[in-house]
Amino acid sequence: MIDESQSPLAGSSLRIVSKVDLDDFLTREDAADVVRAASFEEIFFTVKQLGLGDSLDLLPFVTSRQIRGCIDLDCWRKDTFMPRPFMEWLAAFIQSGPEETVRALTSIDDAVVALFLKDLIEVYEVDRDDPPTGVRLIFTPDHRFGVEPMGEGEEAVIAMPVLDALFKYNPKLGSRVLSNVRYTTRMELEETAFDNKNRRLEAHGFVDYYEALSIYGGPEPGSAGLPAERGLDVEEIPGEETPGNLPAVFADTLSGADFLLDAIGRIDDPAESDRLAQELTALGNRILSANLVNLGEIEQIRPALEEMRDTLSIGMELMTGGHPERAPGVLRTSYIQTVFKVGFDRTARLRERAHALASLPQFLPAMLDSGDQGFLEGLRRFKPLFLESGRLRNFSSVAEIESAAARLAELEAMTRAMLGLFPILIDTFSRTFNTALLHLAIDGPFEPAPLDPRAVEVWMAAGMTLPTPEIPAAIAPFAERWVKEMRAELEPLRGKRLDPRFVGTVLLKL
């Protein structure tokens, strides 16, 4: 019996998705301990699911590292600082009082606080500067700096309680921040804050976009086992915790794959389970980075995590030979990132084959039927997709990959056969074949030259009898469908005049 509570996919204890859930959680005696033990990712995604407004009662329990991590995740878009979400986080803490405000400010990178204030205040050093006359300044407790409010709107309103909290509860930090505002350019502050943020987040899998893309590079040579890699210790960054339990949104999404859930759920060693949860969190963070996901929008996160889930499921199926009971052995010697790469590599092979087909001389994908065009287009994407019922989605199993490979092989064989049968093609394969077949039926050669509408009308009136030409076997199943579609279109038109503009299955002269 698999103990789901020990599974790496059990997820965070902070499974809170509504205000009612939060109220119930806060009645627990261990609520504070559970919050403090969580990683900042768990806190961040919990707050984002609840909304900051409904999370106010949770914020007094969060730690300095968690506050800093949430700011790191939410307040940057690529290398640009975003003051709006930063202001919203500060406003949430301000509502809890000045002590909570200064606790949050103490947790956040000094450069980020200075960056936020840079456009909202003018700072003068009293002994060195000559403040303009008639300006009402707010002085620091030591009278070293005078501050003139400059901004307008909500951000400027937030700036004042920020300064009040700093001056009253942590004047040393306030002096440091104001010194940065006074003597450091905005560009320098942003570069410093960005570098510091990257250094912290890299330990959790949030890496540079281009580095994150390496996850799609396929497995490293000889990566089936990696026992030596397993023995390496990851260098810790002072003051930063390693990723903790799998955030609830990660766990919920990953648990949507039955094979993956069964395989990973067989991990019964608590230490292995914790390690794997950390690896899954780091991998998910890396994939979110590679997909340039706005982490503040939960609904943007799910598609990237679904991609991770489906690719991991394929990789696990391949590395276990389809036997989920082998998963513990595989995961003892292979990083979960390796499992992902193995899965993606198998789908990427379809992309290479699809590109090879599209590159055949004299061939254009537009020559295929619309469904086959969509199928080929899905495979040619950087991350190949599976066409099902007219909709593209992630590959989720080895069986789907094998099915797509078989279909691709049939398309390639048919394409080569059609290019050999008709050296010059000016239209789709279906119209080319149907036109040549009607030529043969009307006592002409088997060629795709446009037909005289009147001759086709006579053939239709005579019973629409078709010959059975010798064609390559690779074309036969496609030809059967093409002819069936042609009959379905022309049958209702028997006894009527054909208008070439409205006939789609054969080529007619205008």
Give an overview of the whole structure.
This protein has 510 residues and is mainly α. The protein has helices spanning 19-26, 31-37, 40-50, 64-74, 83-94, 98-107, 110-117, 154-169, 171-183, 186-202, 209-212, 227-230, 248-254, 258-264, 270-290, 298-319, 327-333, 336-358, 370-379, 398-421, 429-441, 453-461, 476-490, and strands at 76-77, 80-81, 121-125, 138-139, 145-149, 385-388, 391-394. Helix 3 (40-50) packs across helix 4, helix 4 (64-74) crosses helix 6 (98-107) and helix 8 crosses helix 9 (171-183). The longest helix is centred in the last third of the chain and has 24 residues, at 398-421. The protein starts with 18 loop residues before the first helix and ends in a 20-residue tail after the last helix. 37% of the residues are buried. Residues 223-241 have low confidence and may be disordered.
Helices and strands, with pairings:
Layout: H1 19-26, H2 31-37, H3 40-50, H4 64-74, E1 76-77, E2 80-81, H5 83-94, H6 98-107, H7 110-117, E3 121-125, E4 138-139, E5 145-149, H8 154-169, H9 171-183, H10 186-202, H11 209-212, H12 227-230, H13 248-254, H14 258-264, H15 270-290, H16 298-319, H17 327-333, H18 336-358, H19 370-379, E6 385-388, E7 391-394, H20 398-421, H21 429-441, H22 453-461, H23 476-490
Antiparallel strand pairs: 1-2, 3-5, 4-5, 6-7
